[in-house]
Design goal:
The complex is a heterodimer. Helix content of chain A is 42%, strand content 18%. In chain A, α3 runs parallel beside α11 and α6 packs parallel to α7. By secondary structure, chain B is mainly α. Chain B is built from 14 helices and 4 strands. Chain B starts with 20 loop residues before the first helix and ends with a helix. In chain B, 53% of the residues are buried. The chains are: A alpha/beta, B mainly alpha.
């Protein structure tokens, strides 16, 4: 028994050595170089696979749980061939950093010419991304930054987005029901803190906090950590109203968290129409169809509409340019503005086809 | 009258009896399934069975293997450890905080091992001495340690590890990642301890029949607590590997690691009832799960299907194990 087990162990080790021999590399190899500026990113772009006659792009998305990301990823799938891409390998990491690291390695192993990544954690995936860049495979970050020297980044200006939402809350609550200026600290705000490992959420919260502090009539009465969990959002709202029954505005970091807020308000019999002085303002970010329709129906009030349409088309264009030899965007970080949607402008924006999630009626 | 004497049946490795469909399925079903899966992936994707991809799979599964080897000890001893993922989160975050401020790598490793021994001891204390069910005792420990680091870090990623530390995971020696080497060494060490030492035999005895083991003079409680401490130390080593690989640590890390490691061990033939299992089997299980994940990733198949595949194979392995147990009874 003992001898058999040792034999099996030796066999496993021998198999490993065989693999080593087959892999054809000997000696120690250094890891990917790190650091450098945008020039380094451009310099790293030299893909050995680009001349194999097939343009393969890998997408590694942090999670497809939100409607916005599903729409975005669908856009990639629907349009990639129009941009000269032959094959698109799409993976999602379910918000799991370790899984995303493995998936990025797998994509690099599958001879992808380019990798598009929406990171679970900007710092956590930096080493593997640097490694992939060093292999000559450019990495494009979408919606969330990566703390490494990569080929191209396209993201929303989330600091500005957070500021815009907070300013909209402030403007909507500047006067009380009688038209008098709101007293200092009289408007209570519940701020649901999202998954802070995301650079987008961190930036959004930073902008929001700065702007909320600027308006004296606003007072943050709760900052529950709800991560990306809609049950936690629901419970946070219920708990928030137990301790602070005069909450006037609720902020959530993503549109997928609006539904549990509405449900909780219904549960509390606090869902009033916008004209009612008891109405609780709900503010969020993304611009998915259900939330925009909610604004039209008077259930929720403010959404910062992200440009998910451009997240697909602009990035696919960058891929197309790369395959055509144009690497002029190397090292760039482009930030897209958001647009605040309220019940005052929602119909106009829809009519003008400016909402990515809602086609003109 | 001719007198016939009953001859004992010679047990040949490939006797006719062994080749009946039922026996074949019981003894080789899992391996046939593995071959079928590998063949399917290899046909679909020519890059699947390349040495480069195999090395990649070994690298990805290195820290799983280390953790799974530790869990195998606990499973064979007749218990379960639901806290390994949380232990990894705890020790990696604490060590990263320490390393980012001091840069003292040996001290951080010692600290991780010390914490691991302590957590392993507490797991053993709750389950073996106090008598809590392993599911409750270890999951509670896991919640406590993960909760502590989540609170102190506000769930934010901790980074600032020394460069030499993060380089280690991405450096290759003889064409294979350093992490893979470490995993293989730990696997061989685990193999030796579990199968070739008196302690290993005691672990099997305690898992197979604790009452009989006690009668034989084995200190069952001590052996079971030691298994928890081995599992915790394995988790600490896995945490070191994960830190090096990610260059960071966070409180939410490795949340599903326990289930994946147990699945790998079960696939490899370890019985959840204790007393059965092997480190080599766990190695096969970890490798199989990693290969499935890799094969599905390569085809761009949704990761939820990976869960379905892994779950299906785990079920298959568990059902086979159950049938084998009944057949042997």
């Amino acid at each position: 028994m003992k001898r058999n087990l040792l034999k099996m162990g030796a066999l496993a080790l021998a198999a490993t050595f065989l693999l080593t021999a087959c892999s054809g590399s000997s000696g120690s190899s250094a890891p990917a170089p790190q650091g450098g500026g945008s020039g380094a990113a451009a310099g790293a772009v030299k893909n050995p696979n680009i001349d194999d006659g097939k343009n393969i792009v890998g997408i590694c998305w942090s999670s497809l749980a939100a409607e916005a990301t599903q729409v975005l990823v669908q856009n990639y799938q629907d349009h990639y061939k129009e941009y000269g891409i032959d094959e698109l390998i799409l993976l999602q990491a379910e918000g799991n950093l370790e899984r995303q690291i493995d998936q990025l390695q797998d994509l690099a192993n599958q001879n992808c010419d380019l990798i598009i990544c929406n990171s679970v954690d900007p710092d956590g995936i930096a080493p593997v991304v640097e490694n992939i860049m060093a292999q000559g495979i450019p990495v494009i970050a979408v919606d969330r930054r990566i703390s490494a020297d990569i080929y191209f980044t396209l993201e929303t200006d989330n600091v500005c987005c957070g500021r815009d939402v907070a300013r909209s809350i402030a403007m909507m609550t500047m006067t009380d029901a009688d038209g008098n200026p709101a007293a200092e600290g009289s408007v209570e705000v519940l701020k649901c803190v999202g998954n802070m490992t995301s650079s987008a959420v961190r930036d959004r919260m930073s902008g929001l906090n700065d702007e909320l502090a600027y308006w004296p009539h606003l007072k943050v009465v709760g900052e529950p950590s709800v991560e990306s969990n809609i049950e936690k959002v629901y419970n946070a709202v219920l708990d928030g109203f137990k301790t602070n029954p005069n909450i006037k505005a609720i902020f959530v970091v993503g549109d997928n968290q609006v539904a549990p807020v509405v449900s909780a308000l219904k549960e509390l019999n606090m869902l009033f129409p916008p004209e009612d002085p008891r109405h609780v303002i709900i503010a969020s970010v993304d611009g998915i169809s259900s939330v925009v329709k909610g604004i039209q129906a008077g259930e929720n009030d403010i959404v910062a509409n992200q440009r998910f349409d451009l997240f697909a088309s602009d990035v696919l264009k960058v891929c197309q340019d790369y395959f055509n030899g144009d690497t002029s965007v190397a090292g760039q970080n482009n930030k897209l503005p958001t647009m605040i949607v309220t019940r005052h402008n929602v119909d106009y924006l829809q009519k003008e086809n400016l909402l990515w999630a809602l086609p003109p009626a | 009258m001719e007198r016939t004497t009953a001859q004992p049946a010679r047990r040949l490795p490939f006797s006719r009896d062994w080749l009946t469909p039922q026996k074949l399925m019981l003894n080789c079903g899992l391996y046939l399934a593995i071959i079928a899966i590998f063949a399917t992936f290899a046909i679909i994707n020519p890059d699947f069975l390349t040495a480069r991809n195999m090395v990649n799979v070994f690298e990805q599964s290195a820290y799983y293997l280390v953790c799974a080897v530790g869990i195998t000890f606990v499973l064979v001893s007749g218990n379960n450890d639901m806290s390994v993922g949380s232990q990894i989160a705890f020790s990696s975050v604490v060590a990263t905080l320490y390393l980012s401020s001091t840069g003292n790598i040996p001290m951080s490793m010692l600290m991780m091992l010390a914490f691991a021994l302590l957590i392993g001891f507490f797991n053993g204390l709750f389950v073996v001495i106090i008598g809590l069910p392993p599911f409750i005792g270890t999951i509670a420990t896991g919640y406590v340690v993960r909760g502590i680091v989540a609170y102190y870090t506000k769930q934010e990623t901790q980074y600032g590890l020394p460069r030499v530390y993060t380089q280690f995971a991405w450096t290759k020696t003889f064409g294979i990642s350093n992490l893979t080497w470490i995993a293989l060494l730990i696997m061989l060490f685990g193999l030796y301890v579990l199968h070739c030492t008196s302690f290993g035999r005691k672990v099997y005895a305690c898992g197979g029949n604790p009452v009989a083991a006690q009668v034989m003079g084995i200190n069952v409680k001590r052996v079971k607590i030691a298994c928890y401490m081995i599992s915790a130390v394995s988790a600490a080593v896995a945490a070191m590997m994960l830190m090096s690989r990610m260059g960071a640590a966070r409180s939410g890390t490795a949340d599903l690691l326990h289930t994946e490691c147990v699945a790998a061990a079960v696939i490899g033939g370890t019985s959840l009832k204790g007393g059965q299992g092997s480190v080599i089997g766990t190695f096969v299980g970890v490798f199989l799960v990693a290969m499935i994940r890799n094969g599905l990733n390569s085809e761009g198949i949704n990761s939820f299907w990976q869960l379905v595949f892994t779950g299906g194979i785990t079920l298959f392995a568990a059902v086979l194990d159950s049938y084998k147990s009944r057949a042997n009874a």
